[in-house]
């Protein structure tokens, strides 16, 4: 390994003793040696720390940091501070890198100029790209970020490469108050703002092949738990949608999926919030100027979501009911979807 490796691969570890060996092996098997794998033992109460130490004994590219429990955001921030590599890649403890991920990402970074590099993820290992030569990026200019949103990669830090020095110089860190698994998007929004302000002509080189394996069967994952509404959920979408429209000048007709995902996520927050707290949530959410602005933009540009009318009417009970149907057999969800289009009239753009 060079004095300064090309990559630092950052993996927060908490109750991960059953996952980390497979995660580390997916990195070791890359056939690309210019990296360090930084394991942050976040005060795990099981034997995860010992497992990490044993892996480091066997492979000098693995480095372990033990710290008091600070949550995934605290662990990620510790990794940013400690990283020795030129580029930072995030890899969750229960996920894996696809067989050619590091080679493909490194090749894209070496030829991208000021552009950023992103790639695709999948939950089926058989779909992972195994030939780096096939992983040829497509460039998205800033005004095309609405199209990029349709790839499903915008929200996640583990589908992007981050220049380490730039993160430190601009003090870009994770918000450690967010502990429900929605910390990625605020970090991405802050990073993009800083990067594209300094590099106004830059875009994103997007690799459409699957390079990151996302484990969807881990019941302990934070993403599999209910996520009651928090102000940060609204803030992250308000910031993203505002930046797309005003900073990157994305045409409104390319924003359909972003608006749809915004209301879908907020509806999930309502559904996850106990019924006794919804009256307070209704006042909090519906009087928020950012939420009013999102609904106004959707109405102005005719961006459709089945949650648009229930939110506009302040019917949070109906929002929760429709999301419950979405999580189930979806009969009422699709009935409401079609009814909403009928009530609103022609010309509304649909995400799918």
UniProtKB/TrEMBL annotation:
Taxonomy, superkingdom: Bacteria
GO molecular function (one): glycosyltransferase activity
Sequence ranges assigned to domain Glycosyltransferase 2-like in this UniProt record: 8-117
CDD domains given in the database record: Glyco_tranf_GTA_type
Record-linked InterPro entries: Glyco_trans_2-like, Nucleotide-diphossugar_trans
Pfam families: Glycos_transf_2 (PF00535)
Keywords tagged on the record: Glycosyltransferase, Transferase
EC annotation from Swiss-Prot or TrEMBL: 2.4.-.-
Protein's recorded name: Glycosyltransferase
Source organism: Candidatus Allofournierella merdipullorum
């Amino acid at each position: 390994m060079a004095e300064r490796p090309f990559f630092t691969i950052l993996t927060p570890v908490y109750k991960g003793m059953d996952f980390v060996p497979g995660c580390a092996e997916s990195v070791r098997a890359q056939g690309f040696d210019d990296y360090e794998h930084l394991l942050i033992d976040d005060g795990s109460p099981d034997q995860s720390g010992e497992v990490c130490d044993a892996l480091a004994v066997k492979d000098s590219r693995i480095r372990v940091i033990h710290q008091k429990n600070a949550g995934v955001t605290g662990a990620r921030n510790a990794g940013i501070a400690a990283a020795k590599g030129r580029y930072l890649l995030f890899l969750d403890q229960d996920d894996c890198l696809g067989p050619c991920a590091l080679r493909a990402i490194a090749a894209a970074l070496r030829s991208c100029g000021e552009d950023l590099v992103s790639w695709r993820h999948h939950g089926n290992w058989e779909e992972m790209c195994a030939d780096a030569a096939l992983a040829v990026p497509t460039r998205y200019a800033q005004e095309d970020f609405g199209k990029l949103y349709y790839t499903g990669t915008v929200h996640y830090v583990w589908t992007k490469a981050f220049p380490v020095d730039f993160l430190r110089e601009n003090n870009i860190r994770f918000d450690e108050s967010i502990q429900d698994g929605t910390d990625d998007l605020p970090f991405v929004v802050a990073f993009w703002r800083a990067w594209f302000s300094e590099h106004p002509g830059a875009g994103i080189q997007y690799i459409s092949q699957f390079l990151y394996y996302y484990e969807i069967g881990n019941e302990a994952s934070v993403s599999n738990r209910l996520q009651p509404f928090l102000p940060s959920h609204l803030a992250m979408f308000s910031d993203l949608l505002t930046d797309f429209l005003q900073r990157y000048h994305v045409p409104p007709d390319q924003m359909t999926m972003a608006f749809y995902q915004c209301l879908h996520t907020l509806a999930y927050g309502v559904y996850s919030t106990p019924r006794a707290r919804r009256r307070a949530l209704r006042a909090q959410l519906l009087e928020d100027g950012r939420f009013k602005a999102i609904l106004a933009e959707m109405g102005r540009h005719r961006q459709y979501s089945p949650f648009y009318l229930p939110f506009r009417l302040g019917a949070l009970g109906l929002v929760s009911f429709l999301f419950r149907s979405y999580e189930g057999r979806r009969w009422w969800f699709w009935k409401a979807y079609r009814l909403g289009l009928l009530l609103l009239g022609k010309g509304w753009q649909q995400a799918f």
